[in-house]
Every structure is written in C-alpha cells, then in structure tokens.
Amino acid sequence: MWRYLAGMLAWVPAELEAQLQRDAGLTHFGYWVLAALSEAPRRSRRMSELAAMVHGSQSRLSHVVGKLERQGWVRRERTAEDGRGSVAVLTDAGYAKIAASAPGHVATVRSLIFEALTPEQVDQLEDISRALLERISDGPSHLP
Fold it and tell me: Among candidates 56, 49, 38, which has minimal Cα distance to 97?
C-alpha cells in the first residue's frame, strides 16, 4: 500500500505540473495561487493566508506572486486594515487566465483520478485523504 501511495504522490503531481506547463504556461503551484484568489471575496487574500491555503512558505509564495505580477495576473497591495501586511489581488487578466486554464487541468484530474475509480472509491479516497490531511496539519485541512 505504501509503495502505491508514494508512487501516486510522486506521479500525479508530476503529470499535473507537465499538463499545466505545456498547456497554460503555469506551474501547478502558480495555478493553485490563481485558483485560491479566484475563489476569494474581492479576488484577494492576505499573503500569509494565501501561503497557508496553498501549502507554501511565504518566501516561495512571494517569488511565485512576483512572477504572476510580471505576467499581469496578480498585483500586490497593502492591507486596508493596518497597512502592514500585503494582499495579493487577482487581476481581470489573471481571472481570464485561470478560467482559460481550468478546463485542461480539470480534464487531466478527471483522467488521472476520477475515471479510474468507482463513485464509492472516490468517497473512500476523500475520507482517507481528509483523515490524513487533518492528522498532518493537526486540524481540518484548508484546500483551495
């Protein structure tokens, strides 16, 4: 079981990374950042909150947001509340990018995961994944 799980944990992300790079010019991490912002109120999140949501360090997130800024897909602003923190904001161009990239990503996920499983297996995989993530993160998982 462990070898199958470890293989899946290595293989699936590599396949998703390859598809996104090839079809959308995005890394999987960059896609997660855009997706998390697209689902946020006013398409913006504090950088610290965003880092936690996409399971990345603040330095990694800052680097990726810098790349996304240069593409015109994200901009950084000071927080309105205290002016000390930074907020990442998805631009209209960024929203268009995630909307255009999502169908290919979703098709790849469906092909790799959902088409290989019965509906009952999908439910079981969800329960198992949630239990493992809650154990690892010491609480309910926060996935975009």
Answer: 38
